[in-house]
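In response to the reviewer comment on reproducibility (Comment 2.3), we provide here a single inverse folding case reported in full, input and output, so that an independent group could reproduce the run without further information from us. The structure tokens appear first.
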């Protein structure tokens, strides 16, 4: 005897068994079942791909934005790296520069980094300003000056040190590298005031004779006046 089975009955049977299976599953198994169903759906795959692509793209953009200010200076012909001053070095700077400081003395730090030297100088009575190429460090320095209540005496700008006009400052501070000191010496000779002074840290100027110095390795500081010709 032959038996005829209606296709609609078979389809309903499959649906019923599938629904019963999903109902009888534990929450963990049901989640896996739903993920498998989603994986078979081309639209779901497309959505997941877009989400993953979006997250990856956003992360890449974030990395570029954060690292560019630090990497860009390294691509220059003469690089002034960010190396924070030590507490000993700051003390040496303030001690050797104190003799010629007067009321209202101005100090400029060329490549001020995180602003710690400018803020320390402002605390000692200087009207101090820092120039820094990395805008993240400029923002951080401004924040620190404000938090310490010194933002009126310790100020910061984003600028290339080679483009800064030095003619108005009493004390010029530079944490240089050996390759840039000859060019800096020429800039000082051309721009600084007659009664201004230079504080060179870590590396001395190549041809000028210091009027005072503290030699302590990496914390060394040399004091210069512009030679009279």
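Designed residues, in position order:
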């Amino acid at each position: 005897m032959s038996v005829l089975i209606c296709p609609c009955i078979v389809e309903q049977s499959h649906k019923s068994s599938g629904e019963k299976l999903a109902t009888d599953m534990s929450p963990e198994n049901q989640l896996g079942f739903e993920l498998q169903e989603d994986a078979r759906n081309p639209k779901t795959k497309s959505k997941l791909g877009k989400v993953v692509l979006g997250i990856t793209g956003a992360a890449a953009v974030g990395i570029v934005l954060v690292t560019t200010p630090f990497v860009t200076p390294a691509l220059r012909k003469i690089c002034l790296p960010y190396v924070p001053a030590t507490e000993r070095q700051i003390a040496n700077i303030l001690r050797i520069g104190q003799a010629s400081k007067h009321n209202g003395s101005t100090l400029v730090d060329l490549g001020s980094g995180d602003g710690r030297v400018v803020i320390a100088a402002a605390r000692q009575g200087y009207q101090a300003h820092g120039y820094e190429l990395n805008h993240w460090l400029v923002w951080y320095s401004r924040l620190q000056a404000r938090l310490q209540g010194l933002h009126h005496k310790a100020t910061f700008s984003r600028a290339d040190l080679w483009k800064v006009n030095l003619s108005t400052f009493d004390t010029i501070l530079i944490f240089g590298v050996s390759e840039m000191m000859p060019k800096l010496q020429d800039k000082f000779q051309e721009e600084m005031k007659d009664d201004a002074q230079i504080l060179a840290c870590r590396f001395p100027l190549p041809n000028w004779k210091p009027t005072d110095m503290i030699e302590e390795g990496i914390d060394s500081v040399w004091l210069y006046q512009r030679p009279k010709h």
